[in-house]
User: Which sequence fits this backbone?
């Protein structure tokens, strides 16, 4: 059976697209992926999504969107897409051995946390190394930890981690943060937070558990060991576009390129929305807006 | 709590993992988004394998000492026990198929 529209990804962009497409009677099929709900599943309180004056928990917001999409008839497959063929229509989308075909595609695969790629990092993931402060901060009560990053989310996570940790060291490779002034100041002024400027991390140390970081001062070239039991990463995100490489036009940072103000990609019939396209705004509400645009673009294109 | 999984606590933990059945313990918490993804697959597997595998869900918020004792530092973490002994540890969310493959390598 050939679908009218298949949606890959289940963050705010994908789910909003599904709500609109389902209400337009396009009977969307969503491949939601293992990271169901996207990055908001890793957050706590969302205070800037309109309509929730008291704030709402990220996972709760995503559950609500998912239920709303299902209510209008979206069918959901809970696995990752493993391969696509966009060279002819209907487009082919594989989930393992399972093949789905669709007239139109909406790609909303979002972005995932970036890793440093240094020795020890992946080996000790889950044993003191984490890219999810809200998931794992709890386990570092009264311990000393470090976080790398210089943007707003690094500041936010560092402050969040002080709820548990006895001390949080922010490591940053430059001598100032890229974060907004207010967030940076809040972190710098925090009594439990210390900042190590001009510092890069060379290696995560520890046999079974993190015991420290080998760090280097980029000005003096001096190396030292920072003893910590936890190491958190907040150095930004990379778009999830690997499976589309060579089949869709991507920009120099591997985000999907779209035409003008629309959600059209370089392949007719393939549309893209949310953080997989947008490296500037990256908000739940902007992603949702683009998801809505994508569904409307698909509806017009299928007519 | 689901119909097929067992709720574990600090008080009942030792007894649960000492079961004659192989036991998979899922360490989770309310505030952990990725943990929620495991609810469906674990519930289904517990139903499919009733009588050959026991699945225990342990809330780390309510039962911090067990989580600490087993050095859990990231959730979801799933540990497979046999006769009270840790046999395998899975850190991070998995699909149902991936989980079944991991279980199959231990439990026949």
Assistant:
């Amino acid at each position: 059976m050939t679908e009218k529209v298949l949606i890959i990804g289940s963050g705010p962009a994908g789910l909003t697209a599904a709500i609109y497409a389902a209400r337009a009677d396009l009977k969307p099929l969503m491949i939601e992926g293992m990271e169901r709900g996207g990055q908001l599943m890793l957050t706590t309180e969302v205070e800037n999504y309109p309509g929730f004056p008291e704030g709402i928990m990220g996972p709760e917001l995503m559950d609500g969107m998912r239920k709303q999409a299902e209510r209008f008839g979206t069918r959901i497959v809970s696995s990752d897409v493993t391969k696509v063929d966009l060279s002819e229509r209907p487009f082919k989308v594989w989930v393992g051995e399972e093949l789905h075909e669709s007239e139109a595609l909406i790609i909303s695969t979002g972005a995932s946390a970036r890793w440093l790629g240094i020795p020890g990092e992946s080996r000790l993931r889950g044993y003191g190394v984490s890219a999810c402060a809200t998931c794992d901060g709890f386990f570092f009560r009264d311990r000393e930890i470090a976080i790398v990053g210089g943007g707003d989310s690094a500041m936010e996570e560092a402050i969040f981690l002080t709820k548990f940790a006895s001390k949080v060291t922010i490591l940053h490779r430059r001598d100032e943060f890229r974060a907004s002034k207010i967030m940076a100041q809040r972190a710098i002024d925090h009594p439990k937070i210390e900042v190590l400027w001009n510092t890069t991390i060379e290696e995560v140390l520890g046999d079974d558990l993190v015991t420290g970081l080998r760090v280097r001062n980029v000005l003096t070239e001096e190396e030292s060991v920072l003893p910590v039991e936890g190491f958190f990463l907040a150095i930004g995100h990379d778009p999830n576009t690997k499976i589309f490489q060579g089949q869709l036009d991507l920009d120099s940072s591997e985000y999907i390129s779209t035409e003008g103000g629309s959600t059209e990609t370089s392949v007719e019939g393939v549309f893209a929305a949310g953080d997989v396209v947008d490296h500037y705004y990256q908000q739940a509400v902007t992603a949702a807006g683009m998801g809505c645009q994508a569904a409307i673009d698909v509806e017009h294109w299928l007519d | 709590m689901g119909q097929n999984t067992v709720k574990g606590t600090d008080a009942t933990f030792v007894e649960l993992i000492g079961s004659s059945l192989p036991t998979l313990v899922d360490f989770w918490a309310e505030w952990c988004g990725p943990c929620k993804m495991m609810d469906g697959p674990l519930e289904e597997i517990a139903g499919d394998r009733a009588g050959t595998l026991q699945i225990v869900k342990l809330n780390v918020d309510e039962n911090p000492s067990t989580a600490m004792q087993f050095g859990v530092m990231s959730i979801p973490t799933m540990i497979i026990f046999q006769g009270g002994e840790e046999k395998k540890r899975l850190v991070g969310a998995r699909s149902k198929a991936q989980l079944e493959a991991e279980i199959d390598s231990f439990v026949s």
About this structure: Residues 41 and 59 of chain A are 5 Å apart (CA to CA). Chain A touches chain B through 31 residues (CB under 8 Å). The longest helix of chain A spans residues 284-302.
